[in-house]
Specification:
single chain, alpha/beta, Rossmann fold, 7-stranded parallel beta sheet, 8 helices, 7 strands, 45% helix, 16% strand, binds NADP nicotinamide-adenine-dinucleotide phosphate, SDR family NAD(P)-dependent oxidoreductase
Length: 251
């Protein structure tokens, strides 16, 4: 079998992660991952193979230590070559107002959006065995915006932490491993396509009106930024905001 560099893309059964997996499959073997949506994950593998690439699906919950260990053990056994890249994309956003906060809510947001990325990065670097590699963390414009957002404090705090974690790991892992982040703005994935209520639909329309480019982004546009950072040999510790100008607006 031809040896190809392998990339692990967490949470790549749908949305941004799916687009990242398809984009990176142009040059690499891809390990597609999801916690629940195994059928969706296998479909992404089929799409990659149909486009001439190669991929495998591994079901694992990357918000837990055991899930991360399972993912990398399985990834090592299916990889077509060394695993030299990791995209920490899996994430969960839940809107919970201040009065309804609970330790369980904060733990879920922090594990899913921050701690899991730290654990997966540790497992990735461990298996490199001193070799070179690159990590891209998918954070969020919520982690950098100047104005607080009502209802998603825990998610925003976790994403801000992920941006800080990116800088810290970039410093600690240099020069062998580069670590960067992409912070997407509103991107057209399932969370915007199926709003839970009419009120949510109106809120989403208002957000769109405040994006200077006047539209939500395509997952493929975020995937291009991830691909750039994985290959940008002079860049580490950066956070590339890809948000159609949202963080510069007063929305
Ligand atoms: N869409 C946006 O506007 C936007 C904006 C800023 C940042 N982001 C960030 O971009 C990333 C992708 O978002 P998206 O909009 O594409 O979301 P999505 O469509 O809901 O996809 C999330 C993916 O992550 C997987 N996942 C979730 N928790 C997981 C876990 N514990 N272990 C393994 N896989 C897990 C999901 O699969 P299962 O559910 O089957 O496990 C799915 O494949 C997230 O980190 C999100 O915070 C999105």
């Amino acid at each position: 079998m031809r040896v190809k560099q392998t990339v692990v893309v967490t949470g790549s059964s749908t949305g941004i992660g799916r687009a990242v997996a398809l984009r990176l499959a142009r040059g690499r073997h891809v390990v597609v991952n999801a916690r629940l949506g195994a059928d969706d994950g296998r479909r992404v593998v089929e799409d990659i193979v149909a486009a001439g690439g190669s991929a495998d699906f591994v079901q694992a919950d990357v918000s837990t230590e055991q899930g991360v260990a399972d993912l990398f053990a399985a990834a090592a056994s299916v990889a077509a070559g060394p695993i030299t890249a990791l995209v920490n994309n899996a994430g969960v956003a839940r809107s919970v107002p201040f009065g309804e906060w609970s330790s369980a809510h904060w733990q879920e947001m922090l594990q899913a959006n921050l701690v899991g990325c730290a654990l997966a990065s540790q497992a990735f670097v461990g298996q490199l065995g001193g070799g070179e590699g690159a990590i891209v963390n998918v954070a969020s414009v919520r982690g950098v915006e100047r104005f607080g957002r009502i209802g998603i404090a825990a998610y925003s705090a976790a994403k801000a932490g992920l941006i800080n974690l990116t800088a810290a790991m970039a410093r600690e892992l240099a020069p062998g491993v580069r670590v960067n982040a992409v912070s997407p703005g509103f991107t057209d994935t399932r969370i915007f396509r199926d709003p839970a209520s009419e009120e949510d639909r109106r809120r989403i329309d208002r957000w769109r009106d405040h994006v200077p480019l006047g539209r939500f982004l395509a997952p493929e546009e975020i995937a291009d930024a991830v691909a750039y950072l994985l290959d940008a040999t002079a860049v580490t510790g950066a956070n590339l905001v890809v948000d159609g100008g949202w963080s510069q607006s007063d929305g």
